[in-house]
């Protein structure tokens, strides 16, 4: 019979995302409710290797639900890629009797968890914490809603000045491999063009439509670009457009890391709380080495291995909507 989990460690890893604190709070308080010992691990896998691990009580997570960032801090940990690093991490957990792990992070952190759980007898459960929403099997990832709303607020402001001057604006949002922030914020702000890594862009048709606008002397146009699009971000797109439209007034605005910070939205607090609760329940019920997703308003438990193989996919319908609404 499987051993029941009694001591759980929780960590945040990879890129931070608003709502990670709400998830930590939910994990810790659900574990305490079940009489488990709860441990915080600092700076992701780095803290596991450095033995930077501490007991967490209910008060440890007081007054954090509304805070961006992560109280456990996060890191990208090179040593964890190596078997020797993972062995040190395991020994540090073992000596405290930690027999379950909740990993809040993106697909890279899940890849690390897959390796760790294949090598050692410590079950892992993942919570998708990433503003990029680039994980399949869940309709939500912690941080995406806040990041998109931050982008929308910023783009709305840029639109005011764009409209006042009749200019072309190219706004770059985050998304090294994923276009969800660009797609959602672009649709929500009425962008004429949205450039994402998942799709090839018909740049000639964008140029043709801008040339037509130039003829009509109505050069106002909003282009939202994911940083990882095929051209390599807004500055590169500007070069391509400038080449064909030398007289056009084009401005670039890169939103950058402001999208990662700030107080989490109500939606992110809710999904983080719900997922955090289910992560602990999952470990207790023996549902191991999965990540907790929500699909069609139901909990979905996806093997960590599958999660990292299938990235999120942009639906055809969204692309059609962008095209129709921008015409
Ligand atoms: P994210 O979780 O936001 O996608 P990263 O891709 O940087 O962020 O991954 C976070 C950390 O997870 C890495 O710094 C590393 O410690 C661990 N990790 C990622 N991929 C692997 C892997 N293939 N093997 C072992 N550890 C990994
Ligand atoms: O959190 C994901 C992400 O925001 C990507 O879209 C982006 O490319 C990356 O993180 C940048 O992270 P960092 O500056 O921490 O390397």
Describe this structure in words.
With 327 residues, the protein is of the alpha/beta class. It folds into 2 domains: 7-143 and 264-309, Rossmann fold, CATH 3.40.50.450; 146-260, Phosphofructokinase domain (Rossmann fold), CATH 3.40.50. It contains 11 helices and 11 strands. The chain has helices spanning 20-33, 45-50, 83-96, 107-119, 144-165, 180-188, 203-215, 234-244, 266-284, 304-309, 316-326; strands at residues 7-12, 37-41, 53-56, 100-105, 124-128, 168-173, 193-195, 221-226, 250-254, 290-295, 298-303. The strands form 2 sheets. A 7-stranded mixed β-sheet has the order 3-2-1-4-5-10-11, with helices on both faces. A 4-stranded parallel β-sheet has the order 7-8-6-9, with helices on both faces. Helix 5 (144-165) packs across helix 6. The longest helix has 22 residues, at 144-165. The model has no long low-confidence stretch (mean pLDDT 95). 6-O-phosphono-beta-D-fructofuranose (F6P) binds at residues 15, 130-132, 174-176, 227, 260. 6-O-phosphono-beta-D-fructofuranose binds next to loops.
Please sum up the structure shown.
With 327 residues, this protein is an alpha/beta fold. The protein has two domains: 7-143 and 264-309, Rossmann fold (3-Layer(aba) Sandwich), CATH 3.40.50.450; 146-260, Rossmann fold (3-Layer(aba) Sandwich).
Keywords:
binds 6-O-phosphono-beta-D-fructofuranose, 327 residues, alpha/beta, 11 strands, 7-stranded mixed β-sheet, binds adenosine-5'-diphosphate, 2 domains, Rossmann fold
């Amino acid at each position: 019979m499987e051993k029941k989990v009694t001591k759980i460690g929780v960590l945040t890893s990879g890129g931070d995302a608003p709502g990670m604190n709400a998830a930590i709070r939910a994990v810790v308080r659900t574990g305490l409710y079940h009489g488990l010992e709860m441990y915080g691990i600092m700076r992701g896998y780095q803290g596991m290797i450095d033995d930077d691990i501490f007991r967490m009580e209910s008060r440890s997570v007081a007054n954090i639900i509304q805070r961006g960032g992560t109280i456990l801090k996060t890191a990208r940990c090179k040593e964890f890629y190596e078997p020797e690093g993972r062995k040190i991490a395991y020994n540090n957990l073992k000596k405290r009797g930690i027999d379950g792990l909740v990993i809040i992070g993106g697909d890279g952190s899940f890849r690390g968890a897959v390796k760790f759980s294949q090598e050692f007898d410590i079950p892992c459960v993942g919570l998708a914490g990433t503003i990029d929403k680039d994980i399949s099997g869940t309709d939500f990832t912690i941080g995406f809603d806040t990041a998109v709303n931050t982008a929308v607020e910023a783009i709305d402001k840029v639109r005011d000045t764009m409209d006042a001057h009749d200019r072309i604006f190219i706004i770059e949002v985050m998304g090294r491999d994923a276009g969800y922030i660009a797609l959602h914020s672009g649709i929500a702000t009425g962008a004429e063009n949205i450039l994402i890594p998942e799709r090839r862009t018909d740049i000639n048709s964008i140029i043709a439509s801008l040339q037509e606008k130039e003829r009509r002397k109505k050069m106002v146009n909003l282009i939202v670009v994911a940083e990882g699009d095929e051209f390599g971000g807004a500055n590169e797109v500007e070069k391509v457009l400038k080449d064909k439209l030398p007289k056009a007034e084009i401005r670039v605005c890169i939103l950058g890391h402001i999208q990662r910070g700030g107080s989490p939205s109500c939606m992110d607090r809710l999904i983080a709380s719900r997922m955090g609760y289910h992560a602990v329940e999952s470990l207790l019920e023996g549902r191991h080495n999965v990540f907790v997703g929500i699909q069609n308003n139901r909990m979905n438990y996806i093997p960590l291995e599958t999660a990292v193989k299938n990235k999120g996919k942009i639906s055809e319908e969204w692309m059609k909507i962008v095209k129709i609404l921008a015409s």
